[in-house]
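Prompt: For my understanding, could you write out one protein's sequence and backbone structure tokens?
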Amino acid sequence: MSVEDNKGVNRKVHWQSHQSSNAEMPENTLAAILDAWELGGIPEVDIRQTMDGVIIGMHDETPKRTTSAPAADQDRLISECTFEQVQTWDAGVKFSAKYRGERVPSLEEVLVILTRHPERELYLDYKQVDLEKLAELVQQYGVGKQIIFCHKDHENCKAIKRLAPEIRTMLWIPDGETARSFEAARASGFEALDIIQLHLKDAEGDEGWRYKLGKDYLQHVQEQLTEAGLELEVLPFYFDQSSMFRLLDIGIRRFAVDEPRVFVATLNDYDFDKASFI
């Protein structure tokens, strides 16, 4: 729910801790998940399934980049590994010795925490899982209203909505596909969608607006989504105070960020009372 003051200014900002960047914490670990919640954000877990059917947090198809998996396992597909194997890998030490001992979490571990904190939310970025199994697991723990399912394929968003209508869905649209994918979603009546995320890549040169997607276009998209009862989320891959303030000025109130602490510090400096809404 939005929180508006008597001037109609929406001061509530939702933000996703984008896990695949490895910027401030070892991605897809309980340490990163808990840290995002403690900062006031919503963590993201990239979900894959092991050979024995356990849904885990892992961005890549293989463990090579993010874990201490031995040479024999480094290039093995997660779908070819058992959960017992996965649990022998250290998921924190490659990021920093400070996080030595962090393991690849099962989704079930994270959902157990959600049951104890009904005020918390969680993004699940679909990589490779059985959607029926995912829906059953979420419903088993009764946390569907706390889940935001994310994928770039609209059909997967429709599928999870059929299986678990209480789960919110977010269609993320990568740079280069914005107009086509957004128009296709709009033509469907934004079927089964709750949020649309647009990726903001830097433009070449500096003409007073940092991103390839123009301010007017973002405002247009936001107006259409608001009218349809949806939310706009943006993922600015890079931002400074000026560019973030301009996004906030437009009225955008949902973000995905690679550097949560930098984002929170920037947000704390934003004066909602002087928002220009240009």
